[in-house]
Amino acid sequence: MPGAGYSNTTCYRSTLQEDFTHIGVVPFTSGLINGKGHRYPDHGDEPENPVLPLETFTVKYGSSYRFRVINAGMIYAFRVSVDEHQIKLISVDGNDLKVEAAESIIVQPGERIDFILHADVVMRNYWIRAETLEGNINPGKVLGVLHYQGSTENHIPTSKRKKCSLKHRCRVINCPFGGSEPAEGSDLTNSKTGILNAHILNIKFSRYYPKKKYMDCISIADLKSTNFEIKQHPVPRIENGMDLQELFLNFHFACEIWLNKMKLPFLCFQTFPEQDGFFESCEGKNCIDNCCCTNIIKLKKNKTVQLVLYNQDILVNLFRYHFSRPRFCFSDNTLFDMPHPIHMHGHQFHVLKMAFPDYNRFTGAIESPSPDIDCDTPYCNYPTWKNKSWHGDNIPGLNLVNPPLKDTVIVPRYGYVIIRIKADNPGYWIMHCHIEIHQVEGMALVFQEGEKSDMAPVPDKFHKCGDFNWTSNTFRKFINNDINFSDF
């Protein structure tokens, strides 16, 4: 859906989320909905070429519609909304959820969502919005049109997005950062006045967000699968300690993942099981800082595998850092202080928990990492739980009843996500950041699930390198259906 462009002749000032983590190392330029859209120079309101078409969805008053949204972009997340309409999330990554109503839903690269819209407001034209998550400038935007059948309006919409306020808060699903300011009447506020109690004005919240935004952030882990979905795909259980394989994986740009910068193999593991010299293994390497190699982690067949995905290295004060530096260049590692959308092949996983760092209540900047993880080095290479009794099911906050089922999940900066699978699909499966430049730079690893003997054999007559030796005459016969591929 999105586009981005960059000229490397000058340094680029990276844009920031509300927590002062970075969004992208190249500027957002434009995006498309079903192949249609405008470019808005300098994140303004006037399109560069207004005669270009916008995607339009025509609805009938009183009817309900299911929208399927895919973020096919390679860098930017989008906050999706429809002016003056509430939207109801019903599915993520193809898996059904108990309905969650919201003002907007954030969709990370690689994620898919389904939502229901009830066409029940005044019949006119309304903007469908997909906006980037900048907090320091006007966000980049992608626009479409919701048109009511029978409306006499034939011009572009003049509608405005909902203004979040104390009286009219915005509920936003899938935030890559912590929650919102405490709601009125919560235990942190005076129940009569709704004002924060004086003695807690200067404390740091771990799940609350700057109050000026009036946003109630709902994380993916707060969502609930439907009863039918959980019945079809139950949470993998731990019958005894021997059934569990628990791994910590750190996704960050000091060492890409867990000390290893992924070096992609030349050929596919699954179709070349002999693996004769076409990849550089990380085994036996003394990775004091980081290594560039093909990082393969073995999963034991039929084990319950619990993965703790975290995103942590040396913490800088991002608020002070940003305002003390006039420009950023690509050599600046702090550009990669950002959440990462992590995608797993071969499985869909249950999201059992998502934890966030501590934020400064007034600025929104990250103050300190999640206190749950104990890091052994500044880059947090081999962490453990700070509370040594935490393990398996014995971790506070796990949803083992009806967690959402996904294949892509955002890992908050200086936070973590706990996911769980059953290792019942033998093969080689890649896990990687869905921001394309991060994957190319090595933020990926391969799971070897089971032994080679457990995997499906390579089909007979499967072609290997050097086997394809068709002549131009043979190729012409093939495209004319005179011969079949199975003949070779």
From TrEMBL:
It holds the Pfam family Cu-oxidase. The keyword Metal-binding applies. Residues 28-151, 286-452 form the Plastocyanin-like domain. Transmembrane segments: none annotated. Keywords: Copper, Metal-binding, Oxidoreductase. This is Uncharacterized protein.
